[in-house]
């Protein structure tokens, strides 16, 4: 039986009615699918049947305790099934540390108008749940999944913030740190105290036989600060798996009780009103001897299971995969084949992010274009989280073949990019640092803020006005690509004002071993002239995005051949609307033939640049128009 309800929670729909879909109907439609997924992973587990029936009870409870306002919001999100809410061009996000930005959740709640003025309506709050201060990994070593760390406030503060955000039409994203807990989590403490039940929540080994076997094929994530994938636990005289830091113990998902525990946490977050749950490090949740223990089939099945549990009990919450893996592997987190769109709704476009930095360093777009065929395979109904920077390092995760395909030698090419951004390359304008250097393999990733990597830090130090201007152009070029390429753009806090690296982390023993802290700023009250200028430009970029429905991620983009290795261009088209986005990655002006606008169907007669407000008549093929160094254009056919 369908029930009708008046919407009260969502300001723009207040007073209208929706048909409430019944939970019982949904359950009838999905339980056999749920069971088949559960069986696929746990078929050989003796407790499988019990655990599955417990899981169903957990789902019933989660749905029963879902607040009415969230159930209505679920319905509203479901109304336009062909156009999921997260595809909208009206979304613009920001990711931030609540303590480093505002101090606390309560203070943040009073400052929500900062985001509204800027146009940001989707907030990713970095991990808020309890985490030991001296072994926290920025909150990614959770010791209690249900208790907000007192540094930020209380659970009640978080609930209040969520309600206020909802009233203001804003969306909330929080993390579920799925792969590991802190060694101070209650489960880990009980395991350390010898409780077998909780030892089975982790991967324990009596000696080094299996760890040594696994180490043969497992890469190291933090080779400098936390080498290897196992840590000795003296009290137990056992080894525990610790893929990330030695204080982050990997959860054993081959135990269905662990899965059920984590589903409970995920649904708890859903019932706090989380709109998108960011699944931290999903690539790692299944381990198998002889593999690199990443992206395994079982990990995908578990994600599909999570998706179907959420769709049943708390359907308004979408799933984001933080899978920072190779381009082809990232795509699999949307689901493949029959499971397409049945896994994560969103994924980080880590490939594009890294490729943009590649293009900026080299001034050449060929590697970026060579990787696009993999990126364009995203299924309809899913979307990207696009970004230039986040709290993590930049990994050059695209394949060597892509680099070769573009005509470069992979080793030398990667070395140049790492040197360019870490300041080792002579005359490089960038100020950054190498992160997690692996002496054995030569691998390294890159730390630094958007502005510092774009040259602003050096330009400000030398008071070089021309360089300041140029670095601002680079910042906006990078942001604009992320804003218009498709997906939800998520700014990293501080970047909206062009914050440079901060180096105080070096004197803090809890942070000094991890140079990612250089680009996780503490926000200051005062705003410099340069910061104000960047803020203003960022705000304009957001406004432009919101004015252009064609930017909604309803269709993959079409790359335009610019016949110029320095300028990337794509067409976003939907019904009668056509917008050409052009990006000059070089430090020289570039001339382009008007022909490039005639490659794909309808030939525009006139174009309007939303960024510069200029209007152009499209000229003859033999005529040219020019883009200044690092200039971008958002040209709408008028
Ligand atoms: C993710 C987080 C990163 C963290 C790691 C371990 O990659 O983004 O910051 O160090 O997971 O939890």
Distance between the termini: 49 Å
Structural class of the helices, strands and pairings? alpha/beta
Global Rg: 25 Å
Based on Cα principal axes, name the global outline.
globular
Q: What composes the largest sheet?
A: 8 strands, parallel, barrel
Structure explained in plain terms:
With 638 residues, the protein is an alpha/beta fold. Helices cover 35% and strands 18% of the residues. The protein contains 22 helices and 27 strands. An eight-stranded parallel barrel has the order 3-4-7-13-14-15-16-19, surrounded by four helices. Strands 20-21-22-27-24-25 form a six-stranded antiparallel β-sheet, with helices on one face. Helix 12 (297-313) links the parallel strand 13 (276-280) and strand 14 (318-322). Helix 1 runs antiparallel to helix 12 (297-313), helix 2 (48-64) runs parallel beside helix 11 (256-271) and helix 14 packs across helix 18 (410-421). The two termini are 49 Å apart. The structure holds alpha-D-glucopyranose. Residues 137-138, 140, 177, 244, 280-281, 322, 391-392 line the site of alpha-D-glucopyranose.
Structural topology:
Blueprint: E1 3-6, E2 17-20, H1 23-42, H2 48-64, H3 68-79, E3 93-96, H4 98-101, H5 105-110, H6 112-118, E4 122-125, E5 129-130, E6 144-148, H7 155-167, E7 171-177, E8 180-182, H8 186-192, H9 196-199, E9 204-205, H10 209-215, E10 230-233, E11 238-241, E12 248-250, H11 256-271, E13 276-280, H12 297-313, E14 318-322, H13 327-331, E15 346-348, H14 350-362, H15 366-370, H16 372-375, E16 383-386, H17 400-405, H18 410-421, E17 433-435, E18 445-447, H19 450-453, H20 456-461, H21 465-484, E19 488-492, H22 529-547, E20 558-559, E21 567-574, E22 577-584, E23 590-593, E24 606-609, E25 615-617, E26 624-627, E27 632-637
Parallel strand pairs: 3-4, 3-19, 4-7, 7-13, 13-14, 14-15, 15-16, 16-19
Antiparallel strand pairs: 1-2, 5-6, 8-12, 9-11, 10-11, 17-18, 20-21, 21-22, 22-27, 23-26, 24-25, 24-27
The protein binds alpha-D-glucopyranose (GLC).
Alpha-D-glucopyranose (GLC) is lined by residues 137-138, 140, 177, 244, 280-281, 322, 391-392.
